[in-house]
């Protein structure tokens, strides 16, 4: 497995506030990776460290085996769309494409123009006059026309209505499908449903820490909801790692990580959907429940 982004014990602090703590993970080549977590979890911090806009307080981050933004060539391989999908309000759509062509050696003018046509954007319109959804699409167009091998998108669909959201994610998938050597995408969102539609790998961040990290199919195959007569967490069989536990007077419900389901007539063990899996990790003990997969 080729690692496109690799972090080791990556930590970022602002004064006494920890934005990201002890983050060790790998983004494999050619995957669409969802980065999910609540407000303040550290998603933007991780993405900005990966594109070199922030420097770590401690630990390391490498992109294509080198420090991020090491030089112009390295920068050219990475596309980044920040959370507020920044564009230049006074410049027109066409101006943005001209600027993109001037600044990026691998600029794909045909792709940029085709996308603008398909999206129905008026090339003469100033970006300050575009709707939020159109601006997000313009920012994505600029990022993909760079022909990046790694595309980092910070909550790109946060401000979009459901239709614009779907259109945006659709164009993202088209970019991935069209890229010559399959591009790697990391995309953050609060919404698991969006991520489930397009991602094959997931990173769950909460409280500045990685709570879960892996291929979505593997995560789904190894997480279960276990319902039994009330029992203590430490009486569960070895090999089951409890992510989250809830108890009523008579019943206990656990979300566990285990290699396989266990057939025991005294309990019910069922697979989890992705949304429930993520929620279980978000409401878990603040210490990391799972070691990141290496
Ligand atoms: N420039 C900064 N100065 C001080 N604290 C910061 C700064 N940037 C981020 N933080 C803090 O770091 C933590 C992580 O912030 P970050 O923006 O990475 O989270 P996030 O998961 O992207 O959140 P959101 O979903 O709300 O965008 C938060 O507690 C935030 O207040």
Automatic annotation (TrEMBL):
Protein name in the entry: ABC transporter ATP-binding protein
Protein source organism: Kitasatospora cheerisanensis KCTC 2395
Superkingdom of this protein's organism: Bacteria
Pfam families attached to this UniProt entry: ABC_tran
MF term (GO), any: ATP hydrolysis activity
PANTHER family: ABC TRANSPORTER ATP-BINDING PROTEIN ALBC-RELATED (PTHR42939:SF1)
Residue ranges occupied by any ABC transporter domain in the UniProt entry: 5-232
Keyword Repeat: no
Keyword set, alphabetical order: ATP-binding, Nucleotide-binding, Transport
């Amino acid at each position: 497995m080729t690692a496109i982004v690799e972090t080791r014990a990556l930590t970022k602090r602002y004064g006494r506030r920890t934005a990201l703590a002890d983050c060790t993970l790998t983004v494999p080549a050619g995957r669409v990776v969802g980065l999910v977590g609540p407000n303040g979890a550290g998603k933007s911090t991780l993405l900005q460290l990966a594109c070199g806009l922030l420097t770590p307080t401690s630990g390391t981050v490498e992109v294509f085996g080198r420090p991020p933004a090491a030089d112009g060539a390295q920068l050219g391989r990475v596309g980044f769309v920040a959370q507020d999908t920044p564009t230049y309000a006074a410049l027109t759509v066409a101006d943005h494409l001209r600027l993109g062509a001037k600044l990026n050696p691998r600029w794909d003018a045909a792709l940029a123009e085709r996308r603008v046509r398909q999206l129905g954007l008026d090339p003469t319109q100033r970006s300050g006059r575009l709707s939020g959804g159109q601006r997000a699409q313009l920012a994505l167009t600029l990022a993909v026309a760079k022909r990046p091998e790694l595309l980092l998108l910070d909550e790109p669909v946060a401000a979009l209505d459901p239709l614009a959201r779907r259109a945006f994610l659709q164009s993202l998938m088209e970019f991935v499908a069209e890229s010559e050597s399959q591009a790697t995408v990391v995309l953050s969102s609060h919404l698991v449903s969006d991520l489930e539609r397009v991602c094959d790998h997931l990173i769950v961040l909460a409280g500045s820490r990685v709570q879960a990290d892996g291929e979505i199919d593997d995560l789904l195959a190894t997480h279960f909801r276990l319902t039994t007569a009330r029992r203590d967490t430490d009486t569960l069989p070895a090999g089951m790692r409890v992510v989250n536990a809830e108890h009523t007077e008579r019943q206990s419900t656990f979300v566990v990580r285990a290699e396989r389901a266990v057939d025991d007539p005294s309990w019910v063990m069922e697979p989890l959907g992705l949304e429930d899996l993520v929620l279980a990790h978000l409401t878990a003990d603040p210490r990391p429940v799972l070691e990141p997969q290496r």
